[in-house]
Amino acid sequence: MNSAYYTKGYNGYTAYNDRTFGTQDRKDSFSLNQSQSTSLGLEAFLNYDWSNEHHRVSAMAGFSTSDTNGAWLNSSANDFPADNIRKISLTNDPSSKQTDGGLDLKTRFLSYFGRLTYTLNDRYIVTATVRRDGSSNFGAGNRYGTFPSASVAWRLSEEKFIKDLELFSNLKLRAGWGQTGNAGNGTNLSIAQLSSANAMYWFFNGSSVINGAGIAQQKEIDTNLKWETNEQTNIGIDFAFMNNELSFSADYFIRDAKDLLLYRQIRPSTGFSNVYTNAGHIRNSGFEFTAAWNKSFSDWNIGIRLNGSTLKNEAIEVGDPIFSKSGSAQDGDNWDNHSITQNGYPVGSYYGWKVEGIFRTQAEIDEMNRLAVEKGVESGVYQDKTTQPGDYKFVDLNGDGQITDADRTVIGNGYPKFTYGMNLTASWKNFDFSMNLYGVAGMDILSYSSARLTSVYAPDGGYQNVLKEYINNAWSSSNTGAKYPRITKTDYNKNMRVSDAYIQKGDYLKISNIQIGYTFPKNVLKPVKMENARVFASVDNVCTISSYNKFGDPEVGDSNVLYSGFDGGRYPFPMSVTFGLSVQF
User: Fold this and answer.
1) Which helix (H) or strand (E) holds 299?
2) Cα dihedral sign for 205, 207, 208, 209?
3) Contact 17, 2 (CB under 8 A)
4) In this model, does residue 203 exceed pLDDT 80?
5) 94: Cβ–Cβ under 8 A, 6 or more apart, which residues?
6) N or C: which end of the chain has fewer CB within 10 A?
7) 382-405, pLDDT tens digit by residue?
8) How much is the average pLDDT of 408-418?
9) Which residues pair with 418 in a beta bridge?
10) What are phi and psi of 547, to 5 degrees?
11) Is the distance from CB of 369 to CB of 382 less than 8 angstroms?
């Protein structure tokens, strides 16, 4: 078999030949792909500054506009008369011709903005800004949104009664409030659209049934679609000592996302499943702080910088609960809808069953079945008729005497109580050193990885690899006080279902980078006419200190906030070592 590939970046075409020698059979394919996009932008602004002994005024006004559009085309065919024929219309098999393409959605933005800052005696500072943003994503009545902000600051270190203390190098109080807008991705979902797609019909013409295509509205449309608004309020303080060698900063913030742009479920009787609309109110609040110390003495320079934050996330109003499942979890493993967003709870909270423990004996199972009969459970079974000693015992939250989907509840969330980081730098003469660390505390991980590593049951059949720790600590008749449920291939009790048994402690400390370098002295470099030269060695992803390491990397999550703290299993980040030389002539 002879295979050849041809590529050319400008036209974006590819050709693939597949010929079997000794026969006249020919299977050639050719595709032509083209795309282009144009983005035009213009931004202009005017600054004005004025000051005297006591007052200072700074003003800025401007506008910006942008226009983005594009087009794309894909065309292909198979079976050409010869290798050098690359004209799609000359294919020997017209049915193989395929063409697709179109114009990209055109998006346009237009904004006006201004800022005014007033300072009195270099102590009292007031700043106000306003933006008027317009987007083609919305209908004519809501294309523009107005987003103001304001802040005040008091530099107490400039006050005489603070200077007399001879303690602070800097001391400032700050407060601010502001709004910003989000237009979402490019969309035309504020205007009703008609199409023949999914609008087939059939009719009888007297002798036969004929089908045809009609015209119908394709989506439910919210004609009042408007800008999403993000609002933040913060109060902060900055202070420093010893000529700014030691400095601190702390802030308390509240961030509200209102009128979220999202798809919301609607009644099936409308003929549609959802509508793109403004709905929801999400709040984030917490503290942020930084601390830094920089000191120089003799040939030494040392720097330490710490930062940390807390976060409380809450869905204030999102309508009906929003359920979701990560693609990492498989069908048949009872991890459907393991994420829930509902009023009063964090976004993407963990949703599942609670585990009370492990059935140690058959007598415990018989007692729960007896209570189920007393409560009128028709099957007379509390959990499952195949439940055996060594299976998980789930909690009957609604008290109906049996375990069903109605017993699922919020079992946690993936937001750490505290996130922190540290950067260390030091230099001595021509040597330099740096190290970066970061981590979290108070973190709970919903670990699908731990569920897979502590059960031999495989949803798609067969067996799966498990931890040696699980094998040594699984329930058995000789180990009834075990940590893990019994080893079983069938798992009729659904021990592996999403539950708080698979919520693991996810605290960790990572040393992300260590680097050591040496800069050659100038007098050494001068003979070779070099301005600067430095050699260094660097190690990335040095180590992770965590009790979660046996299940994988504790730095879990997803770009989708609905899966915060969820671990679907992945390869750990590798350690890498780099040696380098940088020179400047």
Assistant:
1) none
2) positive
3) yes
4) no
5) none
6) N
7) 999 999 999 999 999 999 999 999
8) 96
9) 441
10) -75, -10
11) yes
End-to-end Cα spacing for the chain? 54
CA distance 178 to 569: 40
Residue with tokens 């991890």: 335
Strands 339-341 and 322-324 come out as antiparallel
Query: What type of residue sits at position 293?
Result: W
The pLDDT value recorded for residue 5 is 30
Written as one string, the DSSP assignment of 184-201 is: -SS--TTS--EESTT-EE
The torsion angle over the Cα atoms of residues 79, 83, 87 and 88, rounded to 10 degrees, is 20
**CA–CA dist 3, 421 (Å, integer):** 53
The size of the chain, in residues, is 585
Distance CA 413, CA 500 (A): 11
Q: Is the pLDDT of residue 478 over 80?
A: yes
Give the mean model confidence (pLDDT) for residues 413-431.
Answer: 96
* Residue 19 · residue 1 · CB < 8 Å: yes
- pLDDT by residue (tens digit) across 115-168? 999 999 999 999 999 999 999 988 888 899 999 999 999 999 999 999 999 999
Residue in 524, 546, 544, 542 with CA at minimum distance from that of residue 534: 524
Q: Which residue has the tokens 């919020």?
A: 410
Two structure tokens written together for 57: 């005024």
User: Rounded distance, CA 161 to CA 151, Å?
Assistant: 24
**CB count in 10 Å sphere of residue 23:** 7
495-550 confidence digits (pLDDT tens): 999 999 999 999 999 999 999 999 999 888 888 888 899 999 999 999 999 999 99
Beta strands per DSSP E along 144-299: 144-155, 168-182, 194-195, 200-204, 209-213, 216-217, 220-221, 228-241, 246-258, 261-265, 274-278, 281-297
Element (H, E) at 420: strand 418-428
